[in-house]
Each structure stands twice: as C-alpha cells, then as structure tokens.
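Let us work through a complete example step by step.
Step 1: write down the sequence.
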Amino acid sequence: MSAETDTQAAEVANTSGITPASLKRTLTEKLDAQYVTIEDISGGCGQAFEATIVSPLFVKKTSLARHRLVNSTLKTEIAAIHAWTPKCFTPEEWERKRVQEGESLPLGV
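Step 2: predict the structure and record it as tokens.
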C-alpha cells in the first residue's frame, strides 16, 4: 500500500532506514563499484528502488550471476524494501553504452 501523503511517505522511508545514499554507499564499498545511481521509484515512500551499477566484479559473470552478487551484498536491505531492480554493467560495457548514447552517461561514482 502506498502512502497517501508526503508525510506518510517520509515516515515509511524513515522507519526502513534504507535510503538511496545508504544503498549507493554499500554497493560502492562492497562491490568496488565505479559508478552507482539509485532511483527511488516508489513515489516517495522509500520502498522501491532501481539501480545502475558499474563494477569490475561483474566481468565474466552472467546477468543472473551479477544480480545474485548484488542481491547477496544487499540481502538485509532488500528484505526491508518492497522492490529492487538492479542494472549491472562491467566498466567496458558501460563505456560502450556511453559511446553509443553519445557520451551523455556519467563516467564514475
């Protein structure tokens, strides 16, 4: 159930303790991520996040293996939120994506 007011949304976000900044910090530290963005897609209640993660630890891993690595890294956090959608790239994949999109994507964390 979503919050009906901004105040309710803020209260839910505060009780989980999960913020985009805390997720970014954990991913950057534990996955040696070179670039991380976290977007709150919950409408303000802090219970659904979408992430873009660029890490050298993803090299030679399948998409499933990358997601498992991220999910195991954020096991406690994921248990406290409603939805989590990671998009995982190696540094080389991210660079190719940057070039394809006219280098409009950021370089690093």
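Step 3: interpret the result. The CA atoms of residues 51 and 71 lie 12 Å apart.
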